[in-house]
Amino acid sequence: MKKRERMEVIYDILKIIRDNQNSIKPTPLLRKANLSSNNFSDYYTELLEKEFVKEIIDKKERKYVTLTDKGFKFLEKYTLIRGLIEEFDL
Amino acid sequence: MRPGPDPLFMYIELGFALIALIFCLLIYFRTREAYSLTKHKGIKYFRDAFLFFGFAYLLRFLFSIVFLSRVVFDMNIERQILMPVFIMFLGYVSTMSILYLIFSAIWKNISGKTTIILGHVLAILVSITAFTTRSPLAVIVIHSILTILAIIIIFHKKDNKKQTKTRILYMLVLLAWVVNLFIAGKPFLPRGFDQIFQGFALILFIIIYYKVAKWIK
């Protein structure tokens, strides 16, 4: 199976969150992302740092992950950016 | 004796440099969002290549203005002082533009910062050599070597049909640049010969811009 590129993994994680009514707990997200926990932790930290996602704690102290505007923007632009990368072999 | 520079051809050169500058900057700024969203190194180097190409055309534009002022208004700007300074800066920015174009193709195989620093060192060496020898020869030689290197690297990669077209475009941009440098101001060439190649390079930049614009909405 072809190894996913970094950008592709980020897209997949964001898409999982969006397809889950933009709210998912970290553990099911890890499971659906199909990554090792170490890898997932790296990506998750990166997504938080880049402000693609944010964490929300509900009244029962449960942590949820949601997309930010920037995260939605990335999903919206992903196909086009992918096209640019492939066109110029970047 | 060689006739003096014809203002008409200098106006044409001025126009070409300005349009090339605009298209290089358009490529740079229109890919800003793609880079800021992804932080993709390939996109970064690609943008930087066109930023430096833009600087190179800005220098050519400024040089043409100064030279044209000298011809049209009979202003006394000493060519002996101006030319080496111009070649020095042009040597630096244009070497960086070619290097960034190469980096954009091979970024997965290079160690980012070290390679970039080495690239700057090479570009500075080229510009110092050009300044001290007061000749564009060092720039032409290094750029020819880099162009050959770039062509080998770019064509060595696995590709599909679309990418082959883009690589041919890259190759033509680099070749047009080197040929432009080589023939610039050569007295044995007929008038207008430089401008034909500059026009050719300009068309290539416009094609690249439209290829970028297709993906950047």
Task: Give the SSE map.
The complex is a heterodimer of chains A (90) and B (217).
Chain A: H1 6-19, H2 26-33, H3 37-49, E1 53-57, E2 63-67, H4 69-87
Antiparallel strand pairs in A: 1-2
Helix pairs in contact in A: 1-4
Chain B: H1 7-30, H2 32-38, H3 41-72, H4 79-106, H5 112-133, H6 137-156, H7 161-183, H8 193-215
Helix pairs in contact in B: 1-3, 1-8, 3-4, 4-5, 4-6, 5-6, 6-7, 7-8
Quick summary:
Chain A is mainly alpha-helical and 90 residues long. Chain A has helices at residues 6-19, 26-33, 37-49, 69-87; strands at 53-57, 63-67.
What labels describe this entry?
heterodimer, A: 90 residues, mainly alpha, two-stranded antiparallel sheet, 4 helices, 2 strands, B: 217 residues, Rhopdopsin 7-helix transmembrane proteins, 8 helices, 82% helix, globular
What does this structure look like?
The complex is a heterodimer of chains A (90) and B (217). With 90 residues, chain A is mainly alpha-helical. In chain A, 60% of the residues lie in helices and 11% in strands. Chain A is built from four helices and two strands; from the N terminus they run αααββα. Chain A has helices at residues 6-19, 26-33, 37-49, 69-87, and strands at 53-57, 63-67. Chain A has a two-stranded antiparallel ribbon. In chain A, strand 1 (53-57) and strand 2 (63-67) form a beta hairpin. Chain A is globular, with a radius of gyration of 14 Å. The two termini of chain A are 22 Å apart. The mean pLDDT of chain A is 90. Chain B starts with 6 loop residues before the first helix and ends with a helix. Chain B has helices at residues 7-30, 32-38, 41-72, 79-106, 112-133, 137-156, 161-183, 193-215. By secondary structure, chain B is mostly helical. Chain B is globular, with a radius of gyration of 18 Å. Chain B has eight helices and no strands. Chain B has one domain: Rhodopsin 7-helix transmembrane proteins (Rhopdopsin 7-helix transmembrane proteins).
